[in-house]
Structure formats: structure tokens, C-alpha cells
Amino acid sequence: MTDETAGSREAAMRNLEGAFGELMTEFRRAYAQAAERVSPGMLPGTFRVLATIHRHGSVTVSGLAERLISDKGQVSRTVSELEDLGLVIRTPDPNDGRIKLIEITDEGAARLESARIPHNGRLAEVLDDWPVETIERLAGLLHALAVGETPAS
Fold first, then answer.
1. From the CB of residue 64, how many other CB atoms can be counted at a distance below 10 Å?
2. What pLDDT does 47 receive?
3. What is the dihedral of CA 59, 78, 31, 17, to 10 degrees?
4. How large is the average pLDDT for residues 137-148?
5. Are 58 and 51 within 8 A, CB to CB?
6. Could you give the CA distance from residue 119 to residue 37 in angstroms, rounded to a whole number?
7. 96-104 and 88-93 as β-strands: parallel, antiparallel, unpaired?
8. Nearest of 25, 82, 104 to residue 74 by alpha carbon
9. Residue 40 half-sphere exposure, CB side, CA atoms within 13 Å?
10. pLDDT by residue (tens digit) across 79-133?
11. What is the DSSP letter of 59?
12. SS3 state of residue 134
């Protein structure tokens, strides 16, 4: 790799890092607003736990903590908070009664969907003029980056 190529690659990676920073700021803002819509005073992290339970279905506290890369005790406290709000329930695992599975309630799913409407509308608005192929390509590139694969060209 030439010095010029290395410099271009370094500049491109800095630009990507900056773009990710902007994107993360927007996601944090959207999560905070959505959390407030689900339940006044709800923290964005609690909303993230609720959204993860919804996305993955029945899950244990350990599985949830692993997916969120979070402390099991903190996740358990957050699940208890969601349970107190009637947004999730814990049920015995049919294969091992000592383990509790966490599932979103109908109320939790309804509030989550309602809270997402403004964000989904914004994303749809921003992507409205994007070709479907570009959206699919971006999704594939982000997935490849997240799992450490080299994307197909």
C-alpha cells in the first residue's frame, strides 16, 4: 500500500467514524424520545431492553444481558421495571422451570409500536428518495462491518 493510499484510507476511516458519531447521536435522541412516549420518565436504556425483547421474542435475563453486552444484574432490574409497568412478563421455561423467560406483553408491544411511529416516519422520509438497491446495499455493508466480514463488491 502506498503512502497516498494509506492516507486516503485513513481519511476515509475518520470520515466514517464521524458519520457514525452523528448517526449514534441521532439514535440516542430517537431512543430518548421513544422511551418518553412509552412511559414518561423511562430511560433510553430501558427502552432499548424493551425493544430487544420485542425483536428477539422469549429470552432469559442472561441471554438479554449477552445480547446487550450489559451487566446481568442491571438487566434484571430493568426487566423488573418493565414488568412493573405491565410491558413484559416472566414465565417459567417449559424445559427448565428454574429459568424464567421474558416476553413482551400486548400492551408493551402496542406502546413500543406507537413510540416508534415518529422515528419510523423520519427514517422513511429521509430514505424516500433513495433507491431500494442503495438501502439494501447500506444494510449489507453495515451488517458486514458489524460482524467483521469483507463485504461483497
1. 20
2. 95
3. -80
4. 92
5. no
6. 11
7. antiparallel
8. 82
9. 0
10. 999 999 999 999 998 888 889 999 999 999 999 999 988 877 788 888 999 999 9
11. B
12. helix
Predicted TM-score (pTM) of the model is: 0.75
Q: Which of the listed CATH numbers 1.10.10.10, 3.80.10.10, 1.25.40.280, 1.10.3720.10 matches domain 3-147?
A: 1.10.10.10
CA distances from 81 to 17, 46, 106 (A): 34, 8, 17
Phi, psi of 131 (to 5 degrees): -65, 145
Set of cell numbers at residue 70: 450489559
Yes or no: say if 111 and 87 are a contact pair by the CB < 8 Å rule. yes
Ranges of each domain in the chain = 3-147
How far is the C-alpha of 42 from the C-alpha of 63, rounded, in Å?
22
Q: Which of 64, 61, 44 is nearest to 115 (CA)?
A: 44
DSSP 58: S
Alpha-carbon gap, residue 88 to 52, rounded angstroms: 12
Q: How many helices (H) and strands (E) does the chain have?
A: 6, 2
Separation CA 95–CA 93 (nearest Å): 5
CA contacts within 13 A on the Cβ side of 148 = 0
Here the cell at position 144 is: 458486514
